[in-house]
Write a structure and sequence with these properties.
Structural class of chain B: alpha/beta
Number of helices of chain A: 0
Helix content of chain B: 10-25%
Strand order of the largest sheet of chain B: 3-2-1-7-20
Shape of chain B: globular
Mean pLDDT of chain B: 95
Strand order of the largest sheet of chain A: 2-1-3
Strand content of chain A: 15-25%
Radius of gyration of chain A: 10 Å
Largest interface: A-B, 15 and 19 residues
Number of strands of chain A: 3
Low-confidence stretches of chain B: none
Structural class of chain A: mainly beta
Distance between the termini of chain A: 12 Å
Shape of chain A: globular
Number of domains of chain B: 3
CATH topology of the largest domain in chain B: FAD/NAD(P)-binding domain
Radius of gyration of chain B: 22 Å
CATH class of the largest domain in chain B: Alpha Beta
Helix content of chain A: under 10%
Oligomer: heterodimer
CATH superfamily of the largest domain in chain B: FAD/NAD(P)-binding domain
């Protein structure tokens, strides 16, 4: 499982946790997050996320 | 009425994200949000590249005020200015009503500086874009003109936002002329070599630059049923004719209300590291706040403040800290990421990486080293942007 971070605001999408409140079940890998999904905090698109190392 | 009400003034990223973060922390305290606009929740960073992403202004709101209020159990007062705050009685007044609060947060943002602040005679409609309603007006005008012809735009300001708009407009087919009092692109953030590279990349899209140029006069004229705008520089040169003027010359924090309540205001509303102002129970964050002397008007520091202030307002006082914060500049023709040195870094200089044989012209790397040789900032272009995460680890925190 990987983590992805919004480069604009720092929000982190953790694949293992998903985002249940947005319909993304825990364990949803990044490539199955819809292309039109946007950062829940600042609203930029999926393209503005990058993979971060798991700490 | 409840005595632990939180009032947030402003419904931008700062105000709304603070409310969301408090709910994420399970805070149940009542929250009232006052805003001058309709309170739709949208992403400001999207405004300067909406054309490239083929977004109309109507596509940008993620939620209406009503949807946001319902989801996060807050009360939103759209189109409702706060007229006065009595900080002793802890009461905020609108035109018609009084609202007692336990804590009050200024998340009022900033306004774009307008052209008449730098140009003595402005007799033409000009645009600034710092919020969605600005952008709606700008796009209505642009789209109408674009339906008729190739639009010529005079873009005042060659800084970060100016360069982003130049890229977005030129890529959408507009003929863009940039004019700036400074002598190069993003002069406050980039070393000269990279400014030049960015300029060349934008020129490849047809953007023209007029540097070290102050405007004296911007006038709308009518001729044979055509309307156009010309500008005269302080040295007597004429620019244009153009079809529209967009101004991107920086931001001014909204400080009037804070000043009237007797808060200490410097460049922005002065707050300490817990985001508290000069009076108890008053806080500020985002584009209007000057945090421990630092004024950063972009999203990463804003979100750092949101996360800290939500904890403080939920009962556990938490000072904000700023890690080194890279800014990804939205100029797709020339990928660029910068982390300018902190304002308190004295002295220092930029070091350029020597180009390698395989490098294209936009592949550039510059490191800012202080007097003792410690890395304090960087600017990366083209393929070097991938080194951001490696370099960011070497930088000291800003706060």
């Amino acid at each position: 499982m990987r983590k992805w971070q919004c480069i604009v605001c720092g929000f982190i999408y953790d694949e293992s946790e998903g985002l249940p409140e947005e319909g993304l079940e825990p364990g949803t890998p990044w490539d199955q997050v819809p292309d039109d999904w946007v950062c829940p905090d600042c609203g930029v698109g999926k393209v503005d996320f990058e993979m971060v190392e798991v700490e | 009425m409840s005595n632990d009400r939180l009032i947030i003034i402003g419904s931008g990223l700062a105000g709304y994200n603070l409310a969301k973060e408090l709910r994420r922390l399970q805070s149940k305290r009542p929250i009232d949000i006052f805003t001058l606009d309709d309170g739709s929740f949208y992403s400001k960073p999207m405004l300067s590249n909406a054309l490239a992403k083929q977004k109309t202004p109507g596509d940008l709101p993620m939620q209406t005020a009503a949807q946001f209020a319902l989801q996060f159990n807050v009360t939103i007062h759209p189109h409702t200015p706060i007229k006065h705050i009595d900080t002793t009685q802890k009461t905020a007044y609108t035109q018609k009503h009084a609202f007692e609060y336990q804590d009050l947060v200024f998340a009022v943002g900033a306004k774009a500086r307008s052209l008449d602040q730098v140009c003595s005679e402005v007799k033409a409609p000009t645009f600034t874009v710092n919020c969605l309603s600005d952008y709606v007006l700008f796009r209505q005008h642009l789209d109408k003109l674009q339906a008729q012809k190739a639009v010529k735009v005079l873009l005042v300001g060659g800084g970060l936002i100016g360069c982003e708009f130049a890229n977005d407009l030129a890529q959408a087919g507009a003929k863009v002329s940039v004019v700036d009092i400074q002598n190069r692109c993003m002069a406050n953030q980039l070393p000269p070599v990279l400014s030049h590279t960015l300029q060349q990349a934008l020129e490849s899209l047809g953007v023209e630059f007029h540097w070290s140029t102050a405007l004296h006069q911007v006038i709308e004229q009518h001729k044979a049923e055509q309307t156009y705008i010309t500008a005269t520089t302080k040295t007597g040169h004429t620019l244009g004719p153009v079809d529209l003027v967009l101004c991107a010359i920086g931001l001014e924090p909204h400080i009037t209300l804070a000043k009237e309540c007797g808060l200490v205001v410097t460049r922005g509303i002065k707050v300490d590291q817990t985001l508290q102002g000069s009076q108890d129970h008053i806080y500020a964050l985002g584009d209007c706040a000057c945090v421990n002397g630092l004024m950063y008007q972009f999203v990463l520091p804003l979100m750092a403040c949101v996360r800290a202030l939500a904890k403080t307002l939920n009962g556990s006082t938490t000072p904000v800290s700023y890690p080194p914060m890279p800014i990804v500049v939205k100029t797709p023709i020339c990928p660029l990421v910068i982390t300018p040195p902190a304002p308190n870094v004295n002295g220092g200089h930029w070091e350029y990486e020597k180009p390698k044989q395989e490098d294209q012209s936009i592949d550039q790397k510059a490191l800012f080293k202080d007097a003792s040789g410690t890395l304090q900032g960087f600017a990366l272009m083209g393929r070097y942007t991938i080194e951001k995460n490696q370099l960011i680890k070497q930088l000291p925190p800003l706060l």
